[in-house]
């Protein structure tokens, strides 16, 4: 019986020991994926900002500028692209909508971002665009890979349509979570006018005829939870200017927008709670279960060897019964 039990324990030990790396290196890349139908929104605010009044073409101080960012998974487009890409794909149809303190639109920029569901690497396909202009992204955008590392990454900037490094600056604690802090600086760069302008009758083509150009610079900051690769907080020191041309009435430049853009508090709380939940799920596949199965396999192996050793030990000899003395005849 001991030998049978030891063989059963040995089989279980091999099973759990083999399951450990399979879960980490086979199941994890196939299970940890961004859902194709994911929808998320984010509200950011720049308080005490500077905003251009297109009526007077003068910059003025305003109490608040609000940026609403939405990302909506396009399941139909993702399924179509997957057939040729040969891997799971997510298509995000995004919109960055900027409004002034009066609730009126300042700008709206649509975007289509196509990427690998697990690695977050960009996938180049028809429809990849920013504000209607075709682009070919390099690097990440919006989200870091699962199991983010302490290193620089290439990050795509939608305003300039270019990719440049976003630098790892250190490890911090944010709302009880360990996060990696990343920062990217985009120097003053000439960028395209938004296709949708805040004043009726003004178009990018009509502005171009005046010789006026749009310039942009930002310092982009992200606090990223490394297990999920999800930013739990973001901030931008954002600046835009119009330069030259007859539109400015002889002035060299005017500020179109300048402000410290930050996530709104209620969205910070929601994001942190969501990331904490997803972090546990990722850790189950990458740490808790693999190490648990490996430890269980080693424990079962030790128990199997112990029972096998007990089974091979020679049995103690049976005790001899003392014989009673025979009666002596007289």
How would you describe the overall organization of this protein?
The protein is an alpha+beta fold and 330 residues long. It is 29% helix and 39% strand. It is built from four helices and twelve strands; from the N terminus they run H-E-E-H-E-E-E-E-E-E-E-H-E-E-E-H. It has helices at residues 2-31, 75-85, 204-210, 265-312; strands spanning 39-53, 58-73, 89-99, 105-116, 129-130, 133-134, 153-157, 162-174, 177-191, 213-225, 230-243, 253-263. Strands 6-5-4-3-2-1-12-11-10-9-8-7 form a twelve-stranded antiparallel β-sheet.
Quickly describe the structure:
The chain is of the alpha+beta class.
End-to-end separation in angstroms reads 55 Å
**What coarse outline follows from CA principal-axis ratios?**
elongated
Q: Please report which band the strand proportion falls in: under 5%, 5-15%, 15-25%, 25-35%, 35-45% or over 45%.
A: 35-45%
Structural class: alpha+beta
Helix content: 25-40%
Low-confidence stretches: none
Largest β sheet strand count, sense and barrel closure: 12 strands, antiparallel
Strand order of the largest sheet: 6-5-4-3-2-1-12-11-10-9-8-7
Give, in order, the helices and strands.
Answer: HEEHEEEEEEEHEEEH
Number of E strands:
12
Look at the structure and give the mean pLDDT. Answer: 90
Using only CA atoms, what is the Rg?
Answer: 32 Å
């Amino acid at each position: 019986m001991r030998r049978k039990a030891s063989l059963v324990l040995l089989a279980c030990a091999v099973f759990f020991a083999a399951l450990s790396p399979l879960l980490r290196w086979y199941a994890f890349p196939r299970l940890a994926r961004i859902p194709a139908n994911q929808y998320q929104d984010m509200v950011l605010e720049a308080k005490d900002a500077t905003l251009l009044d297109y009526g007077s073409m003068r910059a003025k101080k305003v109490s608040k500028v609000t940026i609403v960012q939405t990302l909506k998974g396009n399941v139909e487009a993702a399924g179509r692209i997957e057939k040729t890409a040969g891997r799971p794909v997510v298509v995000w149809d995004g919109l960055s909508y900027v409004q002034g303190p009066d609730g009126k639109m300042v700008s709206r920029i649509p975007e289509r971002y196509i990427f690998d569901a697990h690695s977050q690497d960009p996938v180049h396909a028809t429809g990849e665009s920013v504000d209607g202009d075709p682009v070919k992204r390099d690097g990440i955008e919006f989200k870091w890979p699962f199991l983010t590392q302490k290193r620089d990454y290439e990050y795509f900037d939608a305003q300039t349509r270019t990719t440049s490094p976003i630098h790892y600056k250190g490890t911090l604690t944010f709302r009880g979570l360990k996060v990696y802090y990343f920062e990217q600086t985009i120097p003053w760069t000439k960028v395209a006018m938004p296709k949708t302008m805040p004043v009726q009758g003004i178009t990018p083509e009509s502005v171009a005829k005046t010789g006026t150009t749009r310039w942009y610079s930002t310092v982009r900051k992200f606090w990223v939870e490394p297990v999920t690769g999800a930013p739990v907080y973001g901030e931008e020191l954002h600046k835009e200017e119009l330069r030259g041309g007859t539109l400015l009435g002889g002035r060299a430049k005017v500020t179109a927008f300048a402000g410290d853009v930050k996530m709104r508090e209620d969205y910070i709380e929601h994001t942190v709670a969501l990331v904490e939940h997803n972090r546990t799920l990722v850790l189950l596949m990458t740490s808790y279960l693999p190490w648990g199965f490996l430890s269980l396999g080693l424990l079962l192996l030790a128990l199997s060897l112990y029972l096998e050793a007990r089974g091979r030990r020679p049995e103690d000899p049976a005790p001899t019964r003392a014989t009673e003395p025979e009666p002596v005849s007289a």
